[in-house]
Amino acid sequence: MISSLQDGSEFPVSPSGAIIEVTFGVQNKSALELLDGLGLFRRAGFYNNLPGRGLSLNQMGKLALRCFGVGDGWPCADRNHASFLYRFDQVSILVDCGEPVSSSYKASGLPYDAIDRIFISHLHFDHIAGFFMLMQGFWLEQRKKTLPVHLPAAGIKPFGQLLNAAMVFKELLQFRLRFEGLRAGKAVVTRGVRVVPYRSSHLAQLKKAFQKKYPQRFDSFSFLIEAGRVRIGHSADLGRPEDLEPLLKKPLDLLVCELAHFKAEDLFRYLKRRDIKRIVFVHLTRPYWENLQKTRQLAAKMLPGIPCSFPRDNEEITI
After folding, report:
1. Alpha-carbon span 269 to 299, nearest angstrom
2. At residue 284, does pLDDT exceed 90?
3. 147-151/117-119 β-pairing
4. What is the pLDDT of residues 97-149, one digit of tens each?
5. Architecture of domain 2-318
């Protein structure tokens, strides 16, 4: 299906409208995981000094998550905005494109054909502002592979218009850029990696206040990511902790969860005794970030038995 823009140009539309190169190779793996949970490993370079370095992701058969940006929606001097790269053996998925993801991606050293799909959880700028420079980078670095971008349907037309306004025309691209509207509960499958979007209530208050004047769906999504027996929940932005319920119906190996739109106590209380092997908290609101030690202590107290991490930009996590 082709969607025509106001200027007469066209974009394809669907009918629905941190590399980790090492894993823990030392005998005392649990001790290293404990230190990681305490936030003592800040950059991947630290791992390179550990015994057993050099074991590849493929050898270990593990997921690698690079947190390109862990900041919240406020201007951040010390954090990038939301962007997360999930790398499986043969599939790489980018969730959200907060700025400056183009710079972070270049610094990662990853090839420009590595990303198989991009998922945009909602249309706030802290989740999309880096997308357009990333596309310019893909053009200039001569990406070749087709790139499906899954996003709220309300964003498809303006995304295409802005690319045209910035003169990143489809004729300049050596890859096919395809926009597809997200549909709640409808899985997107790439070589065995399954991503299912679920609606969240993150934009419910804005919808109530502004939908009559600015009619649109005000869509916001969380994601369940499954690969073989590995199950990952990615919250993106929530309206309330209960938005996580569809992700928690079965045990999770990893939950990547925001901590900006409700009290930490409310979220931790909701997650207590849930079957989650590990939680990575991101998108912390400024008071929780500025008092990170207290936030860690509160999580440890209220979530006993669940290892919790609070990564910084460009940290890598494996499971």
Report:
1. 10
2. yes
3. parallel
4. 999 999 999 999 999 999 999 999 999 999 999 999 999 999 999 999 999 99
5. 4-Layer Sandwich (3.60)
Place of tokens 């998925």: 93
CA–CA separation, 42 vs 314, rounded Å? 9
pLDDT at 46 over 90: no
**C-beta atoms surrounding 59 within 10 Å:** 11
Strands 83-87 and 92-95 turn out to be antiparallel
Q: Assess whether the previous peptide bond of 111 is cis (omega < 30° from 0).
A: no
Whole-number CA gyration radius for the chain: 19
- For residues 92 and 174, what is the distance between their CA atoms, to the nearest angstrom? 20
pLDDT of residue 41: 38
- Residue 198 and residue 185: Cα distance in Å, rounded? 6
In the prediction, which pLDDT does 158 show?
Answer: 98
DSSP annotation string for 70-107: ---SS--SS-PPSEEEEE-SS-EEEE---TTHHHHHHH
